[in-house]
């Protein structure tokens, strides 16, 4: 889905839907009250967010995993597998699985460390324990009461913040902002703080500043004519990346998050790019959802998360993994 405009601005639709958001909160409370969380035998680091849509969780997971791998830890990654047909628990195999099977994000994660998808997160954690990992990093799950994390990182997109501050469906919040903060050991604030979210965090929770940096190969797009497209939580983030690279954007199309691309759809984008003397470009997350025959026709712009203060990030992670 695409986030409705009133999730950012508020207004009468948000007010009208506020009673429905109370039902959302009651449902979440009942689920928590009736669930006994599983505590894995190894440290579990939860990387989550408070809002629906993309905040930068997956790049944060990859950054955390990279730091732990560099220190010699046996890292396992856990995902729900959103957008995939398999319920799991199953270990992701990029040579055998497609995005339609396991979701797009797990395919990206599996290139870094053993990755398991499971709708039942506790079952997924048990499978990773059987595989023999000594630390689990979970992509999303801050609102999932089935696991007891050792450490929680709350990821916030500095450009979007928490929108109008209301709960789904009146706003983008999955749970009240204060509840998300209370269960988090640190906030990962990605990009420029355009909404003043840092002031709403206060002094009780450390803030780790970070940015999404394009891969060095993307620098070749400077002054190039491009036609961009993206089906991610906030497609405008990709447009901003292209602008930051100095590319000349001749067109841009935003799709729903996790959009399954059809061959004809991609060919139309590629043909339009050719007609504009441009190249078609998309994100790494979108690339794994492209039809196999179309991937060579589209340039992938990969990004990675970089900590503003790596020492501060390592100090937070040390609370869970020495």
Q: Quote the CATH topology of the largest domain.
A: Rossmann fold
- At CATH level 2, the architecture of the largest domain is 3-Layer(aba) Sandwich
Instruction: Give the CA-based shape.
Output: globular
Q: Regarding CATH, which class of the largest domain?
A: Alpha Beta
- Structural domain count: 2
Q: What is the radius of gyration computed over CA atoms, rounded to a whole number of angstroms?
A: 20 Å
Mean pLDDT: 91
Helix content: 25-40%
- CA distance, first residue to last residue: 40 Å
**What is the spatial order of strands in the main beta sheet?**
3-4-2-5-1-6-7-8-13
Strand content: 15-25%
Give the number of helices: 12
Going by CATH, what is the homologous superfamily of the largest domain?
P-loop containing nucleotide triphosphate hydrolases
Uncertain regions spanning at least 5 consecutive residues:
none
Write up what this structure looks like:
By secondary structure, this protein is α/β, with parallel strands linked by helices. It has two domains: 193 residues, 3-Layer(aba) Sandwich (Rossmann fold); 86 residues. It is 33% helix and 20% strand. It contains twelve helices and 13 strands. The strands form two sheets. It has a nine-stranded mixed β-sheet, with helices on both faces. A four-stranded parallel β-sheet has the order 10-9-11-12. Helix 8 links the parallel strand 7 and strand 8. The chain starts with 5 loop residues before the first helix and ends in a 5-residue tail after the last helix. The relative contact order is 0.16. The model has no long low-confidence stretch (mean pLDDT 91).
